Amino acid sequence: MAAFGWPFSCSDVGIPHRSRCSDLGRANLVDVEWKTCCAISRLLALRTLMQVEAWPSVEYEERPWISNFDASLSRRARMAARGPYRAAVPGIIALATPKISSEVLALVDDASRELARFDTQLGSTPMHMSSILLRSESASSSEIEQITASSKQLALAELGPSKPGNAYLVVANVHAMSAAMDLSAELGPEPIIEMHRILMEDSDPRLTGHWRQQQVWIGGGAQSPHRAHFVPPHHERVDALMNDLVQFIARTDLPVLIMAALAHAQFETIHPFPDANGRTGRALIHSVLKSSGLVRNATTPISAGLLSSVDNYFDALTAYRKGESEPIIIRLAEASFEAVTSGRWLVEQLAQVRSNWNSHHRFRAGSTAQKMPDLLLQQPVVSTAFVAKELNASVVAATNAIEQLEELQILTRANSGSRNRLWQAPEVLDTLDDFASRVRCRGRVKF
Predict the structure, then answer these.
(1) Which of 81, 110, 340, 433 could connect to 118 by a Cys-Cys bridge, CB 3.0–4.6 Å?
(2) Which of 188, 152, 203 is closest to 425 using CA atoms?
(3) 402 and 304 within one domain
(4) What does the alpha-carbon distance between residue 80 and residue 75 come to, in Å, rounded to a whole number?
(5) Helix axis angle, 127-144 relative to 102-122, nearest 10°?
(6) DSSP label of 444
(7) Does residue 294 share a domain with residue 171?
(8) Domain range for residue 45?
C-alpha cells in the first residue's frame, strides 16, 4: 500500500484489487473485497513491525583534536579543549526495520489519514492557500531555530532584495521548502544538497554545494567539541551515511509517516552540513511525504505542530540516538494532527477575510482591482510595480486598483514618503500574526 507504506499488496494476500492503495484516504472504499484487503495488509504489516530487532543506536569513536587557541581562554578552558574527543557513529538504516507497538502504528495510521484528508481538501481551494501554508510552514520551521520575523517583515522581504536579517533568512527557507516539494520526485544526495544550497546561497554560499568538510558539534562552546551536548559523525563518514539514508528513503515497506520521522531523525544525527541542518531536515520531511504520494497539493505546517512542544521534539531526537525509534514517530504524528488543525484554521480565517471583501465591495469584472484580493492573500504587502507584474497590468491600471482598494480600506500605506511607496492588507497580516502567536503559545491558546 504505497501511500501508507504497508509492505504488502492486495495480491500478496490473494485478493483481487480495484485500485492502488496509494489512493487510500481519497478513494471511496465501498468494495468489500477492497476493505478486506486493506485490513489484512495492515495486520500483516503490524505483525512484521512488532517482531523485528531494536533500531540501531548511535555508537561513538575517539578522534584526535588539534587545539587552536586564537581566542582568549582560561587555563581551565585550555585544558578542557585538549586531547581526543568522541564523535558519533550512527547506525546503518537502509535495511533496518523499527520495532513499533500497535498503539503507535494506530496513531500513525490516524495521523496519515488526517494529512491525506486535509491535503485533499486543499486540492479544491485556490492556489494562493497553498502558498500561504508553505510560508507558514517555513516561518514555523525557522522559529524552531529561534529565527523569527513578523508577517509584515516577511512580506517586505519577499518583495525583493532585502538587507540581511531574520526575515531574509525566513524567505530563504520558503524557497528551500518550495524546492523540497519540487525535488521530491527523486530524492537523492543531489536534491538534498540543492535544498540546502537554496536555503544558504545568499547568507553563506561557501557552505553550499557539498556535504560538510569539517567536524561540527552542538552546544558546549565554539572552541572544541569536548564539552558539546552532541558531536555528529566525523565528516569523513558523512557521504556514506547520507547514501545509506537515501537508500532508506527509497524503501516502500514502511508506513510513510514512520519513514519521514526516522529519515528526519537520522538526517539530524548525521548533521551533513555546517549550518541549517534543522531547517533542511524539516524540509526533507515534506519531500518524503510528497514523494510517497501521501500529500500532493500543499505543505501542511508540520513545523507549527513541532513548535508547539519544541522540548519534546528535541527530546525525541535525543532518544533516537539511543536506539529508541518510537518517540520521534509519536512526536511527528502528534505534530501532524496539530498541523492539520492549525492549517485548517488559517485557511478558514483567510477565506473569511476574502469573503468579507467580496460581500462588502463590488469590483468591475476582469478589472485589476477585482484580481487584487487573491494576490493580497499571497503577498499582503505590495508595490505598484509588483501588482503590475503579477497581474500583467499596466502601471496606470495597477495604480488605479491600489487607490481603489485603499479608499475601501482593504489596503493602507505600509511606509511613509513619496518614493518606493508600499501598501499593506492589515486584515491578512493580522491573521497571519495571530496564527504565529497561537502556534507560539504552545497549546495555551486553541485553534
Answers:
(1) 340
(2) 152
(3) no
(4) 9
(5) 140
(6) S
(7) yes
(8) 10-49
